[in-house]
Structure formats: C-alpha cells, structure tokens
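Weekly modeling sync, notes
Attendees: S.R. (lead), two postdocs, one rotation student

Agenda item 3: backlog of single-chain predictions. S.R. asked that every request posted to the team notebook include the full sequence so nobody has to chase files. The rotation student volunteered to paste the first one in as an example of the format we agreed on. Action items at the bottom.

Example entry:
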Amino acid sequence: MRANLTEVLSALPGAAVGSFNVLDLDMATAVADSAEQLQLPAIIGVASRHFEAIRAPLLAPALRGLMDAYQQPLALHLDHAAPHQLPMIQHALDLGFTSIMIDGSHLEFDANVEVTARVAEMCRSYGAGVEGELGAVAGEEGVADTGSDHAEELPYTRADEAARFIAQTGVDALAIAVGTAHGIYTQEPHIHYDTIRNIAAITDVPLVMHGATGVSDAAIQTSVMAGIRKINFFSGLLQGAMAEVRHSAGNRNNDYLAFKQRVGQGWRGLIEDQMRLYAGNR
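Predicted structure, as returned to the notebook:
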C-alpha cells in the first residue's frame, strides 16, 4: 500500500527500512515482492538524475498501481533532488510521489536550511515526507562506478548543526555523513559510529545512511544499533543485473523474458538479504 516517508519508517521501529532506487517497473516489482515476502516496509526510489531518462512521468502511474496491489507500506521516493530541481520536485509530487529528498548538502548551512524548509513546506501540502541532507557524502549518486575510498576525509555531520538543521527545516528524516560513499568501494569504508550515536541522542528524526553497497554486514548492524533508520542501496542492484548480462552474453538463445526473469530473481534475493539485515534479520 502507498504510504509516505514517516509512515514507512514508523512501521519498523528500532530498525532500518531499505530504500532501493529503481530504473523500471521490473526493479520496482522486485522491491515490492521482497517487502511482501518478508512482511517488511520498503521504499521505492527514483534518482533525480534518472527522472527524465527513465520517463518517470510515464512510469509513475504504474508504480502507484504496483504499490496499491501490496499489503506492506511502500513509499515512492524522489532521491537526491538538487536545489535547482524544484520544478522536478513539484512534478513528482503531482505524480503521486510520497517522499522527497532535497539534497542541499553542498550549500552553506543557511542556504541548505532555506531550500530544505521550502521543500518541506511543498511536501506538507501533499501529505508527503521530506528527507534532507547535512554533510557531504562522497561519490556520485546513481552511478555504480564512482565510489570513494577516502570518504572519511570529508567532514562528518556535526550533532549541534544537525539539531539546528532539523529544528529549522522540519525534515522527516536526515541523511548524514558518517564515512560512506555513493558507488562502489574498492576497500571497506570507515564508518564513524559515534557520529551516528551523537546525532541520534539529540533527535527523534530518523537518520539515513547513503552508499550501503559494499558496507559489511557487521558495519550495517552496528550503524543500525547506533541509530540509522533508513538505508539506501542501489549500486549492488546494477552490479547484479550487469553480471547476468555478461553471463548471458555468449548465449545464443533469444528468450529475453527468461533473461529478465533471471535478473529479477537475482534482484529479489539481494533485496531480501539487505532488508533482513537492516531489520535485524527479522
């Protein structure tokens, strides 16, 4: 069933909800199937960088129908919308998106507050949730080959600034910089758990980790125990799909449907593993 960001996150207290960006209806179905199989809430995301390329305005009605066909709470999330993409945010809300992430993390603090508060006001009029970001997450979102091995060199989110940011913007969730990165890591990232703990101690707003592909299970579990309540996972889905493409490259069989089914099966297995991990292996 369709739900907004707050409804989805509150459906799994004390654990983290998986947010999985998708590029088509098959990927979204894999997320919804996994949520239903495990009886867990989930978030179906569309990255702002993909919004036009995947023809999101045409895809959105199918995504809404998909979500309505399932019993578990599912949010439709626009991920990493930039400050200059306010028209896209408005369009997504008109299309029925129930969650928006506005990423003003590269702006100065006051400018980030201003644009995030503006988007929060837009979302409230639609009953949608809003996620902000404070602190820089390395790598390029939506591209599975641009991870950073030195994300820890970027400044972590400060707890005092996080408290001010939340109070001044009214966000429903906050993405924080704790040493992860978008894309693919070539070595294990160094996550600063004390940053998560310090921020979680001063707010009830759910905290978000971006860049989960390649983070060890133990690090995910510790991060959730420290206070992470939403985890974004995408690059691993692309890796899985492309691995099947390469595996099938020498196959002269033209059964495209069977190929798609194999990709979908791989996605569902991966998504279910991640969802169980985030939810404390429930």
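Discussion: group reviewed the output briefly. DSSP finds ten helices and eight strands in the chain.
Action items: rotation student to repeat for the remaining queue; S.R. to check formatting next week.
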